[in-house]
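2024-03-11 09:14:02 DEBUG pipeline.ingest accepted 1 chain
2024-03-11 09:14:02 DEBUG pipeline.ingest length=364
2024-03-11 09:14:03 DEBUG pipeline.predict start
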Amino acid sequence: MLKTTQVLETPPVERLLNLWAQRYTLGMNRTLNQNSLGSKLLESASLKGRTLTATKLKDNILTVNCQMGWIQTKTLYAYIPNVMDLTEARRITQFAFRVYKKLIDVYQKSPCADEALTDESFSNLELPAIQELAYALEPTLLVFQEQHIASKDWRALGFMTTQLNFTNKLIAKKLEPEEKILLAPYLKFVEEQVAIPWQRVCAASAKYSVDSAEFRLVEEMLPAAPSIASSVYNRLLELFPEYRSRRGHLGDEDIAHSCIRDLTMFQAYLWLCLFEGTIAPIQQELLPLCAMVVQGVNIKWELTEKWWQVLEQEILNRINPQAKQLIQPYTKQVQELLWSGRHRLGYPEDPLRNNHFSDFQLNH
């Protein structure tokens, strides 16, 4: 979940902020300069080009895409009766539109949107400073999140990333190839910001020195998050080659995207727990949120266990013995939470009562 976070300017925080920002690079290389796409990128990245893209996306296109994103989300979760009535759906759609309108405003006013942009500055195209982007979007995203929390059906909170994911895809279909490259980091950021607590991880590092074992571990592992998530996902494909969710096969591109994002989310929550010295963020936020989405869904417990086990093992395989001693108390507590949740199925007051959290990843 997204929470307002005070970020102090300390060396550890600054170093992690830089690593966080690297998640949202444009994914370009210098060879693009030599072809027509490279030329179009320069045009689209200029102030005029970004204004044209923003104008195209605003108003009707964004409104329709936000509505369609919600319709697709509702269709996916249609097996849960009466998830949300029409009035609530319309309200949440309106707030989703506000999120994307703000995102497009930020994109249009990016420091890169300079009429003097030249081939020499091609490789310098990037997002605004990550904290500036986070602060610019935070008020709108928090209100959007609050609409889900305020829903008559509390499970709607778990649908946020689903709606944003669908809307991102619909928006991307309206873009030219060069516009997709430029906007992709922004769309990725907005989807991750409501789910992955990277900003909180960065802020929580303020009480550590750059030489501390805790900081050194997270500084090493944060850039490895995509590789870890991909490795775990591929291992799950090997373990469950025939698995299908309501959205499709585990190997489908869209499901792979959601799985890898959520495996990254689990990593970020683990590092947040390490910095804060408590398992509370996972216990009070992550597992209950996952349980919201999968209430009433019957899935093999084997998959639930393997999801965490494979992720834990992948992390432990990449770190030294001293680092293992730091995080194993937390990973063991997560195992205990999952085990206790498994044996308390059916208790309405227990947020872990269904605890089939892995289907959360595989169904949105």
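2024-03-11 09:14:41 DEBUG pipeline.report Confidence is low (pLDDT under 50) at residues 345-364.
2024-03-11 09:14:41 DEBUG pipeline.predict end
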